[in-house]
């Protein structure tokens, strides 16, 4: 059975950058109080990229996908599988993956979306790995892309300061050399309420609450414990120890979750990729964006072992171990 190997990556962030001070000034016009100090102390976030009106998830996803294709030196017609992880698709249907396929000028391969919120990218990568190992695809594009700014309640300071928009992508190809060496996915559907956007459109009307809601402290506790357990399990599955992991690329929700996790796993902070300060939480896009940053600045190199971890609404979580 072939391995699925990551042969390229790309990222795209909307050009509009909103600093904490700018956001605080904007919220102040609506009598909502926040500050750079509060946001940095509690989350590590200093700024976020926000999509302008009309800039959709498929737009960001296509830009990231094209960057990954260029990086991998692969043309769109070689892609036989596109998976987009997103909770903010352009439409109910067709899928964002189909829109991306059309934008890239690739036709004929499979294309579909995966919805596992902030764990979406590790879910999608695990599915691509299974397709490739089973011989059902040779070269896949796996994308995490979100416009979370569209589902935020900008009157709720406890959530609206936490998120940003963006997209990250990888090209995964069948290879005789080790690539993805472990994958571990989980969900606990009894925890839907701690993080949700529990609305929809029916009969032409919005039903329920279209905005993201979160019990921050419950998410914090569950995230650290779930990710720590998953890290041990995926290493055991791959027959390696945590000390063999060269880079941890965790979901970028919050610097305090990341610091707790790395301490719990005894992974030194120099081995942890962090982008939450400049990207904020981009949900399914956060892991591939952080991975791409660390590849392009030369930290993640050929031969390295990388652990990617996602956690988010559902409640969902999981880990993928990759040999570069
Ligand atoms: N600015 C200023 N004050 C604020 C803000 C804000 N943006 N948001 C909340 N506060 C206030 C609250 O109103 C409250 O005030 P009060 O004491 O007068 O009632 C006070 O700060 C404390 O509120 P808490 O909600 O208890 O704040 P907490 O210390 O728990 O921090 C946070 C909130 C940062 C969300 C924290 O719970 C956390 O880190 N949770 C992890 C969850 C997370 O990061 N989620 C991201 C998305 S989920 C995911 O991606 C997996």
From TrEMBL:
Its main location: cytoplasm. Residues 252-256 are annotated as: ACP-binding. It is found in: Cytoplasm. The active site is at residues 118, 251, 281. It is an enzyme of class 2 (transferase). Gene3D superfamilies: 3.40.47.10. Keywords: Acyltransferase, Cytoplasm, Fatty acid biosynthesis, Fatty acid metabolism, Lipid biosynthesis, Lipid metabolism, Multifunctional enzyme, Transferase. Pfam families: ACP_syn_III, ACP_syn_III_C. InterPro entries: ACP_syn_III_C (IPR013747), ACP_syn_III_N (IPR013751), FabH (IPR004655), Thiolase-like (IPR016039). GO terms for cellular component: cytoplasm. It catalyses: malonyl-[ACP] + acetyl-CoA + H(+) = 3-oxobutanoyl-[ACP] + CO2 + CoA. Residues 112-189 form the Beta-ketoacyl-[acyl-carrier-protein] synthase III N-terminal domain. Pathway: Lipid metabolism; fatty acid biosynthesis. SUPFAM superfamilies: Thiolase-like. Its EC number is 2.3.1.180. GO terms for biological process: fatty acid biosynthetic process; secondary metabolite biosynthetic process. One of its GO terms (molecular function) is 3-oxoacyl-[acyl-carrier-protein] synthase activity. Residues 235-323 form the Beta-ketoacyl-[acyl-carrier-protein] synthase III C-terminal domain. PANTHER family: 3-OXOACYL-[ACYL-CARRIER-PROTEIN] SYNTHASE 3, BETA-KETOACYL-[ACYL-CARRIER-PROTEIN] SYNTHASE III. Catalyzes the condensation reaction of fatty acid synthesis by the addition to an acyl acceptor of two carbons from malonyl-ACP. Catalyzes the first condensation reaction which initiates fatty acid synthesis and may therefore play a role in governing the total rate of fatty acid production. Possesses both acetoacetyl-ACP synthase and acetyl transacylase activities. Its substrate specificity determines the biosynthesis of branched-chain and/or straight-chain of fatty acids. Homodimer. The last Arg residue of the ACP-binding site is essential for the weak association between ACP/AcpP and FabH. Belongs to the thiolase-like superfamily. FabH family. This is Beta-ketoacyl-[acyl-carrier-protein] synthase III. It comes from Pollutimonas nitritireducens.
């Amino acid at each position: 059975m072939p391995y699925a190997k990551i042969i390229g990556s790309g990222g795209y962030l909307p050009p509009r950058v909103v600093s904490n001070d700018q956001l605080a000034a904007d919220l102040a016009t609506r009598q909502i109080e926040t500050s750079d100090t509060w946001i940095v102390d509690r989350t590590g976030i200093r700024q976020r990229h926000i999509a302008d009106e009309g800039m959709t998830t498929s737009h960001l996803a296509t830009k990231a996908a094209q960057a990954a294709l260029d990086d991998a030196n692969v043309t769109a017609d070689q892609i036989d599988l596109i998976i987009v992880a997103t909770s903010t698709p352009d439409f109910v249907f067709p899928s964002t993956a189909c829109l991306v396929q059309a934008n890239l000028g690739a036709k004929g391969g499979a294309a579909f979306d995966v919805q596992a919120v902030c764990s979406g990218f590790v879910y999608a990568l695990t599915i691509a790995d299974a397709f490739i190992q089973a011989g059902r695809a040779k070269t896949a594009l796996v994308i995490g892309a979100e416009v979370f700014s569209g589902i935020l309640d900008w009157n709720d300071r406890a959530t609206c300061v936490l998120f940003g928009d963006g997209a990250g992508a990888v090209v995964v190809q069948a290879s005789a050399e080790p690539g993805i060496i472990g994958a571990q996915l989980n969900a606990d559907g009894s925890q839907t309420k701690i993080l949700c956007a529990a609305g929809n459109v029916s009969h032409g009307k919005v039903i329920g609450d279209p905005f993201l809601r979160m019990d921050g402290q419950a998410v914090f506790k569950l995230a650290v414990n779930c990710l720590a357990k998953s890290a041990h399990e995926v290493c055991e599955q791959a027959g390696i120890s945590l000390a063999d992991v060269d880079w941890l690329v965790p979901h970028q929700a919050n610097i305090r979750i990341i610091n707790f996790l790395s301490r719990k796993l005894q992974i030194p902070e120099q081995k942890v990729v962090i982008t939450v300060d400049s990207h904020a939480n981009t949900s399914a896009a956060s892991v591939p964006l952080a991975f791409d940053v660390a590849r392009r600045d030369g930290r993640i190199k050929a031969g390295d072992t990388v652990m990617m971890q996602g956690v988010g609404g559902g409640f969902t979580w999981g880990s993928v171990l990759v040999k570069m």
